[in-house]
Amino acid sequence: MSAPDVSCVITPGPGGAAALRTSVDSVLDQSLRAVEALVVLPRDTDASVRAAAGTYAGRAPDRVRVLDTDAPGDVPAVARNAGLSAARGTYVLVLGDGERLRRHACRTLWEAGERTGAELVAGCWSRLTEDGAKEQEPPWQHALFPRSRVVTKLTDAPELVVRDALVTGFCLRRAALERFGARYDEDLGPGDSVFGARAAVSVGRIALVRRRIVSGRAAADPGRDLAGRVEAHRRIRELLEARGAGALREERERAFPLDRLVPLVHAFPTVPAAERDRLAATAARVLPGCVPEPALLTLPPVERVGVRLLERGDADGVLGAAYALRRRGSVAAPLVVRDDGRVQWRDGEPDPALDVTELGHQHRAFGELRLMNRLTRYEAEGGAVLLEGRLVLPGHTGPGPAATAWLEFRVRDGARAVRLPVGELRRDATGISWRARADLTRLLRPLGVRDTLWDARMIVEDGHVHAVSDLFAPHDLVGPAHRSPARPRLGLLAGDTWQPYVTLKDHLAFRLEARHRPARTVRRAVHYATHFRPARKARLLLRALGRRRDRLRSRAFKISVYHSWFLRLPVRAGSAVFESHMGTCYGDSPRAVHQEVRRRGLPLRCVWSYDRSRDGFPAGERLVRRWSWRYLWELARAEYWIDNQGFPQHLRKPSGTTYLQTWHGSAYKRMGFDETRVRMANAPRRELLQRAVHRFDHFLVRSEHDVRTLAHAYRLPERTLLRTGYPRNDVLFTARARDESEGRLPRGPLAERLGLDDHRQVVLYAPTFRGGPGRRGRRRLPLDVARFAERFGDRYTLLVRAHYLEAANLPVCPPGTVVDVSDHHDTGELLVLADALITDYSSVMFDYALLDRPLVLFAPDLDTYAAERGSYFDLREKAPGPVAETEDELFEVFERLKAADTGFQAERAAFAREFGGYDRGDAAHAVVDAVFARHLSRTSRTTDPGEDRR
Question: What average pLDDT does the segment 95-120 reach?
């Protein structure tokens, strides 16, 4: 046989014959036929594995070779090296135990190598999840394989050596392998990462293909061979240092604790106590000096604490850190506030690695904290159980001496609960030790159906303040030996035993089980009755009815009914449907128009749509939920549609309806058909957008810039444009006039509701929306608000206003320094309240410039954003305030805000004239006159809005 294109070296492992068959079958199934499977058998290979290998060799002798060696089975590196020496293919690939090649993997690697001349070709790989049910790729692979490419410098693909990327899913040209003589380290168990890193730094050309090559890699076991993994990391670090790659070495030092040590800490509650002690002792022996202090301090606070305690061999401390990792926001240690205000994880010598000040726990009172309550003892004798535990208390807060405690057992996903007083409470400087006895058989009396799972927690009460904490426990604390008898209300046939267990979230729970014959018989009978053929047919029928019900509730069905039936209804004269930001709030220009309509007493039947909650909407108005049947009915019969974003695009406007589109802001970023995403969309999507904007009868603009950008981008005819300005900005003119005549203090009722002090200035931070269609949810803000609060908390209160399509993840900060106002309905009220604004590309900058107050643009990704999204003008050239591209630059501006703002007053005035030329403070009045003219009496039509304000 001629030399194969690819030799796949396979060594058996713990998976035995089944894993070997999986790997060999994947090789034989390759679409590239010139591939051989080289099975290397150590001397102590199991007989079943030898038989499986022999079967394959006999079935396909030209494609499967079996190589017997004297290598010991517990050192796979020896067998792999023998396979590398015996390989005959142009390229050599190594498969681990049970790993599978994808159907076209070898063809993909071979073609990439031949096309590019690369000596190493690598692709993606995936591994099994912890439960073995799914597979997933390591998250860092997305950065390594953004596309197929060739690299000649490791700095262009640092993940190759910074992460353990080359452990599988790659092949080496055999000529290069023989030239630099790379082999697996036979004195090292997990030597695959060292071999891959050594190969990466030795070859000159590497091809990366954005295709999955290998799947089925074994699930990560953080505790397996910790000493070997640390030694492998040391060798790779020394290798990079010897090659002069100091920057890559530093990156690897930062990545190693995240990849190897933090997962080990996270897994501690699931590990038996003896194994936890062994791992901690091993870590104390091998970890010192492995993670340099600068690299350790780059970790998030709880991860940093866990690694430090692991390094010290503190098994109990690591367990507490693991609970804090697995239940974010929990206080799992007796925090100590030092004299300088810094917070340490626990008492002792100051250690930067144990500094957890940024978690913000010191700013919360006893009832606001999620305290770790660790169950330390559980004994059962019949129905009587003894529970002991310890509730952690931080040093700065806690209950009073007269506090009481209760154990509560609550039905999961239900409202029923029973309480038991805790008999003993002993408080000391770092927590409360407690003990309680309970007769589970008498205390827990479930019905026996749908209430078979109960969760346990403790409630500590101190007057009107109470703290609730789950009972955390390591997974080996309870087991079959701790069962107790049960007496369900339906009798013992419904269940007879309480089995305590620790949930995946690490807290104590109880499960009603059928352990004895009568209950087991009933369970089997119920299972049969619900799973035999008539029952299965009944379930299928119910599912079909459920799907039909869902179709009747679907938007597609509602749209068809709307167009087929609702649009035949006559328009109700004087009916108006208002909507702001797709029903998320009662605000913006639709609110200003609505208030003007009510102020002038127009005889309109006003209806407001809301998306999820009625909170914040006017109590006296008609409210309909967006996409409800009532919503569609009101739209079909309304004489007026008023909104600032767009009613659902698929809904046609009734023939007798006038659509007022107030819009939601002037444009910096490209919009509509000027946007690349829209231009690249398919024809039906573009036509849908065009039909949606053609529904507009009136479109408000606030400057000729809007005409050149928004009107052009949405292809709006001139007749639809109303050059009135935005009604939402009328309050800004009123506020500016008040500032000039009366001053800005006192601030008003909104400031009082938000708890703002007059001695601090108010800064509003309102970043733009950075997602796309369908991309909603919580995002990390570009600005580190905790750092801002630490720096300026004594001078400024930062109001954070996330975009209405997003929500902000805010850290805990000192009281009065950071306030989340994302749920406040009207942005205009917040603009009036703010003494300064921080934004990036949001349209609020065009509005805030009308107030002539300090405006700072924090745009760390300005060039990237402008290149990707597109912009209508150069923001740096026309900026109404300083443009800061780093946090340090932003902080420097706020250190001298008044001086920095002085140089931008002329630019801000020019900015307001250019982008708000039609805003004069009477937009709502002008819009009502133009759109609702036939409903106006002579008196209301001629009223001057300025007189009302005076």
Answer: 95
Query: What is the arithmetic mean of pLDDT over 591-603?
Result: 95
Query: Which residue stretches of 613-699 are H helix?
Result: 629-637, 676-679, 683-693
What are 518-546's pLDDT values in tens digits? 888 888 888 788 778 888 888 889 899 98
DSSP state of 499: E
CA-to-CA distance for 788 and 187, rounded, in angstroms?
51
- In this model, does residue 446 exceed pLDDT 50? yes
Mean pLDDT (the chain) is 91
Give me the phi and psi of 808, to 5 degrees please.
-100, 140
* Distance, C-alpha 607 to centroid of its chain: 36
Backbone phi, then psi, for 836, in 5-degree steps?
Answer: -155, 155
Per-residue burial over 15-53, b = 16 or more CB atoms within 10 Å of its CB, e = otherwise = bbbebbbbbbebbbebebebbbbbbbbbeebeeebbebb
Q: How many CB atoms are closer than 10 A to CB 288?
A: 11
The whole-angstrom separation of Cα 173 and Cα 520 is 61
Using alpha carbons, select from 214, 292, 209 the residue that is nearest to residue 253: 292
Q: How many CA atoms lie within 13 A of 811 on its CB side?
A: 21
What CA–CA distance (Å, rounded) separates 702 from 598?
24
Residue entry with tokens 């509560």: 408
The tokens for 362 are 């010191």
How far is the C-alpha of 817 from the C-alpha of 789, rounded, in Å?
6
Q: Residue 810 has what DSSP assignment? A: P
Element (H, E) at 524: helix 517-531
**Separation of alpha carbons 276 and 265, rounded Å:** 10
Between the alpha carbon of residue 902 and those of residues 210, 676, 852, 855, 898, the distances in Å are 53, 38, 11, 11, 6
Distance of CA 15 to the CA centre of its chain: 35
Judge contact between 828 and 728, C-beta under 8 A.
yes
Q: Residue 244 above 50 pLDDT?
A: yes
Give per-residue pLDDT as tens, 813-832.
888 899 999 888 899 999 99
- The torsion defined by the Cα of 839, 841, 845 and 847, in degrees rounded to 10, comes to -130
Share of the chain above pLDDT 90, in %: 70
What are all long-range contacts of 629-633, with beta carbons under 8 Å and residues at least 24 apart? Answer: 629/558, 632/558, 632/561, 632/562, 632/566, 633/566
Strand, coil or helix: 863: helix
CA distances from 313 to 287, 323, 331 (A): 9, 17, 21
> How far apart are the C-alpha atoms of 693 and 690, rounded to whole Å?
5
Give the integer Cα–Cα distance in Å for 76 and 836: 65
Burial 219-242 (b: 16+ CB within 10 A, else e): ebebbeebebbbbbbebbbebbee
Dig out the tokens for 368 from the structure: 């606001």
Calpha distance 161→256 (Å, rounded): 11
Could you read off the pLDDT of 261-312 as tens digits, one per residue?
999 999 999 999 999 999 999 999 999 989 999 999 999 999 999 999 999 9
The full DSSP string for 556-577 is HHHHHHHHHTGGGSPPEEEEEE
User: Locate tokens 């010290």: which residue?
Assistant: 312
Query: Residue 152 corresponds to which tokens in the numbers above?
Result: 């000649």
CB 788 within 8 A of CB 891: yes
Whole-model pTM?
A: 0.82
Q: Which residue do the tokens 């800004």 mark?
A: 732
- Counting Cβ atoms within 10 Å, is residue 750 exposed (0-12), middle (13-18) or buried (19+)? middle
Q: What span, in angstroms and rounded, lies between the C-alpha atoms of 273 and 269?
A: 9
- Distance from the Cα of residue 838 to its chain's centroid: 24
Q: What is the DSSP string of 576-632?
A: EEEESGGGT-S-HHHHHHHHHHHHTT---EEEEEESS--TTS-TTSEEEETTSHHHH
